[in-house]
Amino acid sequence: MELRPIRGKREHAAVLKEIEALWNAREGTPEADRLTVLVLLVESYESEHFPITAPDPIDLLQHVMEARGLNRRDLEPYIGSRARVAEVLNRVRPLTIEMIRRLCSGLKLPADVLIRDYKLRRAA
User: Fold this and answer.
1) Cα dihedral across residues 37, 39, 45, 48: positive or negative
2) Contacts of 97 (CB under 8 A, 6+ apart)
3) Beta-carbon contacts of residue 92 (< 8 Å; ≥ 6 apart)
4) 57-114 belongs to which CATH class?
5) In angstroms, rounded to a whole number, what is the distance separating the alpha carbons of residues 100 and 61?
6) Digit-coded pLDDT (tens) for 60-85
7) pTM of the model
């Protein structure tokens, strides 16, 4: 197969199949070089045809809490009081720049996701 941009679903599937066949290629071999180029082609095709949007900030926080086994109390050093954490997670109060800074440095969360706009609910 000649190397060129992937132009459709069939070509995409064929390239994925070839990548699978080359997966264990030894580094420094022509097969490993071909694998590297094919992976780049697939990444380019998939980023254009199957883009993954960043999660909203609160969805990210909830995912991180679940993945790391954290509870709301664990967020207090970064967000504030128990009530403040509840307001943020319930989308009543937005994250502030200072909260975002503390979440980024303390939990190593990406600032570019935390600063995204998200919808707030009205307080009860």
Assistant:
1) negative
2) none
3) 86, 120, 121, 122, 123
4) mainly alpha
5) 11
6) 999 999 999 999 999 999 999 999 99
7) 0.63
- C-alpha triplet 117, 119, 120: angle, nearest 5°: 120
Tell me the helices (H) and strands (E) count for the chain, helix number first.
Answer: 7, 0
Terminal Cα distance for the chain, rounded:
62
H/E stretch holding 40: helix 30-49
> Is residue 79 within 8 Å of 94, Cβ to Cβ?
no
Q: Tell me: the pLDDT tens digits for 12-55?
A: 999 999 999 999 999 999 999 999 999 999 999 999 999 988 89
**CB-neighbour burial class of residue 62 (10 A; exposed 0-12, middle 13-18, buried 19+):** middle
Q: Which has the closest alpha carbon to 8: 54, 48, 59, 51?
A: 48
